Amino acid sequence: MSHPSRPQQPNRKWRAAVPLFLLAEVLVVIGLFQLIGWWTIVVLLAMSALGLLVITRSSRRAWRDIRTMRRTGVAPERTAGDAGFTLASGVLLMIPGVLSGLLGLLLLVPFTRVAVRRTVGVVATRKVLGAMGVRVYDGAGTQLFGDVVPGERAEQPRPTYEQVPRQAIEGKIVDGGGNR
């Protein structure tokens, strides 16, 4: 018999993380001010100006991509995720703080953006599937994530992608001439 699950509080971790991050921002700015003096203000203003430039260029590029897609019907090679992370990078750069600025600069670098996109994709997939009550298994039948039901075990390993037989239907498509 399974026990009713307790309602989770997903924001519990973030309630402590945000004030700690803000405290760290203030301490880093104070430390930088003690190290380089009034140049700290110049650094913060330069990062904010860079953030504004990134947001402006990103939004122009996104509109250009949308117009191109509407005109040609082909999606641009740049993904919406890249555009979103570039926009987030600009927002982080505009926030007056050294740590948020460094995070924004990291998101501007293409290989870190790819790693962040993959990580966000995995975490989002797990959250969505977990919220739907889906349990995901690897090829050996080991549960990767999802609800755990006490006393329940997978009888046999789930098939991996390569084990599923592929079927193809040969033939040719004939246009019905709009008589449907």
UniProtKB/TrEMBL annotation:
It comes from Barrientosiimonas humi. The keyword Repeat does not apply. GO terms for cellular component: membrane. The chain crosses the membrane at residues 16-33, 80-109. It holds the Pfam family FxsA. It comes from the Bacteria. This is UPF0716 protein FxsA. Keywords: Membrane, Transmembrane, Transmembrane helix.
